[in-house]
Amino acid sequence: MTMRIWNKVLSIELIIGMVISIGVGIIVENIPQLYWSRVCWITLAVLAIIFALQIWGKNNHTVKHVSQWLSNLTLILIFNFLIYTAVSTINLTNKSLVLVSSIVGLLLFLVVDIPVVVVNFPVVKNWFMRLFMVFLLYVNDIYNVNRFLGTTNEVKLILHSGVVDAIACFILTFFIARAWNFRFSWNLKLIKTKYFQLWLLC
């Protein structure tokens, strides 16, 4: 995919994010269990600013630079938060969609941050800031935002196992390596040993 396509995908994500922020912000006002309304409106404001800067930045390098940095510092946290809030809201308001919404949420966790990395991470040149960006990804993982409310026990088990986080991190690592011009190899070699063969038999 070309950078132009990645930019369009990111723009679509921003628009969807704004729609979800408005929808969840309105719905959760009437659900005592949920307390995300104010956060959703703040999220909407940030997404709207980034979207406006993204459009303005097409003809202005400085504005584009600001847009990329603001995106790097906020979008990964925001997108994961919106998946969590949207799925949890659906689960608590429509029990018949619990399994479907939870599975869709799990799949979105794996791919939602890729456009952010591809479009905006190349602007991070300094080693310290690269380290800081990795730290933000780490904070996003340990914050445990991806624990859907009202979901099935099977989905809870998958989420608590850390499998989704591990796969998402592996995928993002590939795209981060490309964005920062690092070498990344997919070939994982398994060495056959006596203990490995015993483990397979078990």
From TrEMBL:
The chain crosses the membrane at residues 6-27, 39-57, 69-90, 97-121, 127-145, 157-180. It comes from the Bacteria. GO terms for biological process: proteolysis. GO terms for molecular function: peptidase activity. Keywords: Hydrolase, Membrane, Protease, Transmembrane, Transmembrane helix. This is Predicted metal-dependent membrane protease / abortive infection protein. It comes from Lactobacillus helveticus CIRM-BIA 953.
